[in-house]
Each structure stands twice: as C-alpha cells, then as structure tokens.
Design goal:
Strand order of the largest sheet: 3-2-4-5-6
Structural class: alpha/beta
Largest sheet: 5 strands, parallel
Helix content: 25-40%
Length: 575
C-alpha cells in the first residue's frame, strides 16, 4: 500500500479563504478541483436545467398527455436502492402532478434478472397498464421494450447506465449517456434522471395551464429520496449531484422527509437531524438494498411510499432484520471467497517473497447466495486490490446451470469494457453482461466458468501496469493540531462527500503507544500524534502495527458516557 498526498493549489486555497471559506475546508475543496466559492453554491437555482437532458421534453409531453387522458401508468423499477428511490420518486411525483393511476412492478433478482425483460413487459400489459415507465434500467432492454410495444404499450425509458450497441425502440429515451445528449452531469443517478423528468413534466403542465408557479406542486419534497439514491448508488458526486444531495440533506436535517426515511434513520440508530452522506451510504442504503438481495424490493419501495408513520416503522424494522440476515450470509461467503481467492495466488509471482494475487480474481462456490455476490466482490477487491468477480448459481427455475456474477474494479480498469473484450475473444461464454467502469454484472454457463476466469485475468494482465496493482490511498496530507477539535469534525461531516469527491483523509507518521483487538476483528490503538495522545480504531483489521508508522486516517467523534472525544478512523498504513 502506498499513501500519497493530493496536490493542493495554494492560490486557489488563498482565493477560497478570501471569499470566506473556512481555511481547512478551503484546502480540502481546492484539492478536489473547486476553484471558486460560486461552485460551492448548492442552491436549487444552481441546478442544471432539464433542457439539455435529451428526451425530457418529449417525456413531459408524453406524460402530460397520459395524465390528461387518465391513462394507467406502470413503473418498472430496479431492485437496488437507486431503483427503489427512483420508483418512489416516480410514483410520488406523478401523483403530485395529477396522475390518478400509477402502479409499479419491481423485478425479482433471482427469477427475472436485471432490467425490462419480455416476461416483465407481458406482466405489465396483463395488469391493464397503458404506459410502461422504466427507472434505473431499460437502456439495454431491447427485447423487453420490443415486447412491450408489441402489446400496445407506450414506453418511456429513464436510465443512466451506458447504452449497448443497439438502443431500444421506446417512445422516448431519457438517459444522459445516450448518443447526442449534452447534459453535463453524465454521472447523475437513476433517481436523479426521474426527478428531472418530473421537473420537465411540471413545466409542460404549466404551459398547458394546469397550474401556475404559485399553485404548482413542490417537487422539492422528493429531494430526500433523490439524495439517498444518489449516494447509495455510488455515482460520482459532480457539482450537480452534490447540489441534489445537499438539498436532500438540508430537508432531512430540518425534519422534512418521507415517513419511511425517518423510520430508516430510527431503525439504523442514526440521528436524522445530523444526517450525513455516510448515513445514506452505510446505514439507510444497505437496509433498502437488503430487500432486493434477499427478499422482495417491494418492501423497500413501500417503506419509501407510505405516509403512515406506524407502517413505516414496521417496514423499516423488517428491512433492518433482513439486513442483519444479509450480514450473516455475507460473512460466511466472504471467508470462503477469501480462501478461494488465496488459492489462486502463484508461488512463481511474488512480492517481497510473498505469493501475489493474479491480476484479476474470479471465484465461485455452489453455496454462494446470488443476492450477496456484489458485496462480497467489493470486499475481495478491497482486500487484494484486484478487479474481482464473485459468482453464484442462478436460483431461477430452469437456469440452475447458469452462474450469475457481480464484479467490482480498481482505478484504471474499466470493468464493462473488459467484459466486452472477453465476450469478443470467447464467443458464447458470456450469456449476458452490462454495467459501468467500476461495477458490472454478467452471466456465464457453469461449464464455461474456467474459460471466463482465464479470459478475464488475461485482459487484466494486458491492461494493468504494475503500478496500478499497488493500492494507493490519496490523502490530504498532515493535519494541524489547531484543527483537532470536535466542532470541526461536525463541520466536516455536514459537507457532501462521496464517490469522486472523497471524504477528508489525512496522513502522518505517528507513534503507536499500545494496540489491542476489539471483538476479535478490529484494531484499537492509542497513538501519539504530533506529541499529543489520540485514540484510533482500524475496523476489520487485525494485523499489529510497528512502533512508528505512517497512517491514513479520517477524523471522527467517539461518544462514551455522554462525553464526545476526537479519534482517528484508520484507513490504511504504509510501512
């Protein structure tokens, strides 16, 4: 592991400080590409307008006509948190804007697989719907859209994933990544795309005289859901996404949020009035995702849709229980996957005399649960810093010989492009695949797993230089003692951090005074930092540290018997 410090342009720091930005925040923002205080303005007026998001005008006309004609609308969601929040935003928003018949359907991860498939299109048609609307999926559903059209359904696709070589023949496509779209925020989440469609629809309804600026519904009530889905989907937090998240957080902290969001905070033991992006990513998001992994995402969507506080609490407790089950399953799978991964290490390829992992890792075990493969792949990737796929046997009837894999990548290795190359080199091995640069999924026949494993590793061998195979932690360098204060921890936590706008991480050499294991899997430390004592914790790490070591760490507040104390959350070590 190598710890490196971000470049911090001093002139930009000075300019931000002169504009009134706190000196520590000025340094952090400058290191993340912020050049002027205006870029930190998270007001609604600074949001990108829907005009340049290709398809929003046509979608608004299509939906406005459907509302006027009292058509029956059915949203086809995805089974992750982005899909669930996008569905809830769609249902709530369309009802706010006058739609009286809005239903939804969410695919079953095991039986249906991903996206709008022909069988799902048939179910939507059989339900009596007139229009099918996809959220967080559909851009690759060529056959599913064709089946829906053949049954006489109007089809609106809203998605943010990368398109394949052929676009579906929907009535309207809204996707910032489709050819010809000039929308600046290519990283907007699926829930954000649906929110923009609703903004365009409201504008169209104003033009038609349905309401004016004074009487129009306030769509900002949907922003807590937009913020949650955006962070949970780990999309890049560009300026527009940061504004969406900041607006959602602001409303949650003020107590304005759907009953289900409030209930999820309670079930997770978090405080909504002090909500942070960490709560979205590590508390609420996983509880919603657990429903799609192990049960039925309908539970998650219903939790986000209900306005009954009692019902919301009941659903949130159910989601919390499912998430606990998910963690138990994940723990056993992770241990087995680590053993399988370590068996791939080659004695002929060593680093400092220790057998090194292959350039890419693919593992499968008959006992793996397909709903948890993505999480386990992420854990393996973090442990060995290699692009990783974890496979499980499909639980769908008649598809027992198919393996469904989920992959996670490292910087410099585009996962979906790698799968595309494997498919071209080994025709017929990949039955289906799709995804992004850092996360992707695929399906292979069980008999072809070894071919995939070798083909995937070969692509990684060709694409990844030696330097890319060494894990790097980018940090903000040393932190001055004057900033070692609880109030500044709270200041930092209130900002919007996440993918592409990394949370503040500092690095310095420290003295290790003492260390002990907590719960057999976490390393508790007493350190001396710049001559002063400080406690630290390194979660999911058990190897002891030397007396002096360079650590990468985040600032955190630990509370014990009502007293809050500063501590370090260790992210990595270089020694």
């Amino acid at each position: 592991m190598k710890i490196i410090a971000r470049e911090i342009p001093p002139r930009t720091v000075w300019a931000l400080e002169q504009a009134g930005v706190h000196p520590l925040l000025a340094r952090l923002f400058a290191a993340r590409g912020v050049r002027a205080k205006e870029e930190l303005d998270d007001g609604l007026a600074r949001l990108l307008t829907p005009d340049t998001l290709r398809g929003t005008h046509d979608a608004a006309v299509l939906l406005a006509d459907a509302i006027a004609q009292d058509k029956r609308l059915c949203i086809v969601a995805d089974y992750d948190c982005d899909g669930a929040t996008a569905c809830a935003v769609g249902v709530r928003g369309l009802r706010l804007l006058g739609a009286r018949n809005v239903a939804y359907l969410v695919p079953d991860r095991v039986v249906d697989g991903y996206g709008l498939t022909p069988p799902i299109a048939e179910r939507v048609a059989a339900s009596g719907a007139d229009m099918l609307i996809t959220v967080d999926n559909g851009i690759a559903s060529v056959d599913g859209v064709a089946a829906a059209k053949a049954r006489g359904l109007q089809v609106l696709v809203t998605d943010h994933h990368l398109p394949g070589p052929e676009l579906p023949t929907a009535d309207v496509l809204v996707n910032p990544n489709q050819p010809g779209c000039e929308f600046e925020s290519k990283s907007i989440a699926g829930v954000g795309v649906m929110f923009y469609v609703l903004l365009a629809l409201r504008s169209e309804l104003r033009k038609r005289g349905v309401f004016d600026t004074a009487s129009q519904p306030k769509l900002d009530a949907l922003l807590p859901l937009v913020a949650l889905g955006t962070v949970a989907d780990v999309v890049k937090l560009d300026a527009n996404n940061r504004r969406l998240v900041a607006q959602g957080l602001r409303r949650i902290r003020a107590g304005f949020m759907p009953a289900g969001v409030a209930a999820l905070f309670k079930a997770a033991g978090r405080t909504a009035s002090a909500a942070t992006t960490f709560d979205f990513g590590f508390a609420l998001g996983p509880r919603i995702n657990a429903a799609g992994r192990l049960a039925d995402m309908t539970l998650g969507i219903e939790c986000l849709l209900t306005d009954d506080a009692g019902r919301a609490d009941e659903l949130a407790r159910m989601l919390d229980g499912i998430n606990r089950e998910r963690r138990d399953i994940e723990g056993g799978m992770r241990d087995q996957a680590l053993l399988l991964a370590e068996s791939l290490f080659s004695a002929d390829d060593t680093v400092e005399g220790i057998a090194a992992p292959p350039p890419a890792i693919s593992v499968f075990d008959a006992g793996f649960h397909e709903g948890v493969v993505g999480i386990v792949a992420s854990r393996i990737k973090d442990r060995f810093h290699r692009p990783t796929f974890v496979f499980a046997a499909s639980g769908a009837p008649g598809k027992e010989q198919e393996l469904k894999g989920s992959g996670r990548s490292i910087p410099g290795f585009h996962l979906r492009d790698a799968l595309d190359l494997v498919a071209k080199r080994h025709p017929g091995v990949l039955l289906r695949f799709g995804g992004h640069a850092m996360a992707a999924g695929c399906t292979v026949a069980r008999e072809h797993f070894e071919t995939f494993e070798k083909g995937f590793a070969q692509v990684a061998r060709e694409w990844l230089a030696e330097a890319a195979l060494t894990r790097q932690i980018e940090t903000d360098g040393p932190i001055s003692r004057e900033y070692m204060r609880i109030d500044l921890v709270d200041t930092l936590h209130k900002e919007v951090w996440g993918q592409g706008f990394a949370p503040p991480t500092f690095s310095e050499e420290v003295e290790v005074v003492s260390q002990r294991l907590v719960g057999e899997k976490h390393l508790a430390l007493k350190l001396r930092h710049q001559g002063q004592p400080i406690d630290a914790i390194w979660f999911s790490h058990t190897d002891p540290l030397p007396p002096k070591v360079k650590l990468a760490f985040r600032l955190d507040a630990d509370e014990w018997q009502g007293v809050r104390r500063l501590r370090f959350l260790v992210e990595g070590a270089e020694f």
